[in-house]
């Protein structure tokens, strides 16, 4: 229910299928896959598919131009009246492709000003873009934060590429984490709703995610979404190849329960693809393929 959520926040939450458990039965979201590049490497990523920030291995996702993305939004909006949110969540990191990502948001706002804009990022360059995000009326930003301890981070991220330089190991994880937490604080300060996604990796960061939960809560994050590592050799992730397992549903629930009370926990995430369309749990992306969108030219 609405609980203790302030009125202004409730306005942003009530129609968003990810931010409100109730809304996800009634409202749809779509992603437009306009962002191919990434500026970090996660051991669980499979670049052949979508950003595992928000994705399940599936078919190779589309790469749309901003113009094609806007056209796709129009096509989906006229077919699925429950559409309330358009997100950019990959296939790489949206903020590693800032021109494409921001141009897309601009065009969508022109053609469909009522749709809410949503952005999902690893957070490395988020602090550099807060003003633009605010200016473009993006009300919802998700940061994937898997650690607040660089020693743990070094096991998850082999490298980052930051300000024209490659960093590895603990140094890379420290920069990434500083930037992510700074991003959370800046979003809160600007009144942009911030959701944290964390990938639960047994034996690496499982118990540590309780620390992450506390760190993001006091910096002003609104919602925490812990998702299970999807790891298997056939999906080709470094973790999958090393035999790293994902958590069991029981382990997931126990961790979510330990975090509950600190802040709102999201428990209905469907780990969408970067080109997902429809209600959560229903994937209608096949109806709106790049081919079909291009044919609308
Ligand atoms: Fe997309 Fe993410 Fe916005 Fe939702 S998905 S960018 S916040 S509109 Fe939602 Fe999908 Fe889970 Fe993401 S169910 S993977 S949390
Ligand atoms: Fe892959 Fe996303 Fe991590 Fe980049 S941030 S390496 S695209 S999972």
TrEMBL record:
UniProtKB keywords: 4Fe-4S, Iron, Iron-sulfur, Lyase, Metal-binding, Nitrogen fixation, S-adenosyl-L-methionine
Cofactor: [4Fe-4S] cluster
Coiled-coil parts of chain: none
Pathways per UniProt: Cofactor biosynthesis; Fe-Mo cofactor biosynthesis
Domain (Radical SAM core) ranges: 20-275
GO molecular function, one term: lyase activity
Record family assignment: Belongs to the radical SAM superfamily. NifB family.
Function: Involved in the biosynthesis of the iron-molybdenum cofactor (FeMo-co or M-cluster) found in the dinitrogenase enzyme of the nitrogenase complex in nitrogen-fixing microorganisms. NifB catalyzes the crucial step of radical SAM-dependent carbide insertion that occurs concomitant with the insertion of a 9th sulfur and the rearrangement/coupling of two [4Fe-4S] clusters into a [8Fe-9S-C] cluster, the precursor to the M-cluster.
The protein's name in its UniProt record: FeMo cofactor biosynthesis protein NifB
Residues of the full protein shown: 45 to 341 of 509
């Amino acid at each position: 229910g609405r609980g203790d959520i302030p009125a202004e926040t409730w306005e942003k939450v009530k129609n968003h299928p990810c931010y409100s458990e109730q809304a996800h039965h009634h409202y749809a979201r779509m992603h437009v896959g306009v962002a191919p590049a990434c500026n970090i490497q996660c051991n669980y990523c499979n670049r052949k598919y979508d950003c595992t920030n928000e994705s399940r291995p599936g078919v190779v996702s589309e790469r749309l131009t901003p113009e094609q993305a806007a056209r796709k939004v129009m096509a989906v909006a006229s077919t699925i009246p429950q559409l309330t949110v358009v997100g950019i969540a990959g296939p790489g990191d949206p903020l590693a492709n800032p021109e494409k990502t921001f141009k897309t948001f601009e065009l969508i706002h022109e053609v469909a000003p009522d749709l809410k804009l949503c952005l999902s990022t690893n957070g490395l360059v988020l602090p550099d873009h807060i003003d633009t995000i605010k200016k473009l009326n993006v009300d919802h930003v998700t940061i994937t934060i898997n650690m607040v301890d660089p020693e743990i981070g070094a096991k998850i991220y082999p490298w980052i590429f930051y300000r024209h330089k490659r960093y590895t190991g603990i140094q890379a994880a420290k920069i990434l984490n500083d930037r992510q937490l700074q991003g959370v604080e800046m979003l809160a300060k600007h009144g942009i709703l911030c959701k944290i996604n964390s990938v639960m990796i047994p034996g690496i960061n499982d118990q540590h995610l309780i620390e992450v939960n506390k760190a993001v809560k006091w910096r002003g994050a609104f919602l925490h979404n812990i998702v299970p590592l999807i790891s298997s050799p056939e999906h080709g992730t470094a973790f999958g190849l090393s035999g790293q397992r994902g958590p069991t549903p029981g382990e997931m629930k126990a961790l979510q329960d330990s975090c509950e009370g600190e802040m709102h926990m999201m428990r209905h995430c469907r780990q969408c693809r970067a080109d997902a369309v429809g209600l959560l749990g229903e994937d209608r992306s096949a109806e709106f393929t790049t081919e079909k969108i291009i044919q609308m030219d």
